[in-house]
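Usage

Read records sequentially. Each one opens with the input sequence:
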Amino acid sequence: MKIVKHSGDIVDFNPEKLKNSLLKSGAGKQEVETILQAIKSQVYDGISTKQIYKMAFALLKKTANSHAARYNLREAIRLLGPAGFFFEKYIARLFASEHYATVTNLTLQGKCVSHEIDVLVKKNHAIAMVECKYHVGRDAASDVKVPMYILSRFNDLKERQHAIFDKKDSILKCWIVTNNRFTVDAIDFAKCSGLNLLSWNYPEDNNLKTKNDNRYLYPVTCLTTLSISEKEKLLILDVILVKEIIHNSDCLEKIGLSPNRIKNVLKEASELCRYI
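and closes with the structure output:
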């Protein structure tokens, strides 16, 4: 049976791949098997992966909101747009979870011109600039032109000292982060040039997906018990991560939620971050 991907490519339906993604949501084996059989009975030749995803999401939500939230991670990160400003804040939180000092949205003077930098991080006296490449479309990829361009900016900035964390800081490293993926040429160029890359699926064992699952860095846009407008209000309040709600439930009152709604949101958040 053939299915249609987001990109328009036509591929074979792979039940095993779907099963693995369902298991990663945290649902039990029996629950996953039941969901898989239900989806198999509704799949038809030419169905889109988007429709399959919607079916899986709805069925997971019936088992537990947190399962659906975890399954929704990639889409949740995409919802940190459309401008990408909240994606930059999210990436800063990710580095902070790894004991980096962080600062966002600085303009620094290079040797030749000034540059707006998304995130700057510091650890063990080494400072790195982090450039975030946010894509609205799921199938968009950052090609080789991205690291080539950012390398030129990095080279211009590392020629001077800057007032970032201290008065005279030097930028020694450079990261490029995207919510989607990098092309093979982009990865090869970055490796050759000493640039660090981070995407949804790269590096293989330490990417956005694995970092989320290992450290519970789920964005608030994951939560299924909140509306889109409520999620946006939390982001504006600088509440970026689900775990921040657990430690500061007052923010849910600030966006107008009733006590019963707050209870439901906190239950989902606790299950998602395994704070039970």
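Summary fields computed downstream for this record:
- DSSP finds 13 helices and ten strands in the chain.
- Residues 49-63 form the longest helix (15 residues).
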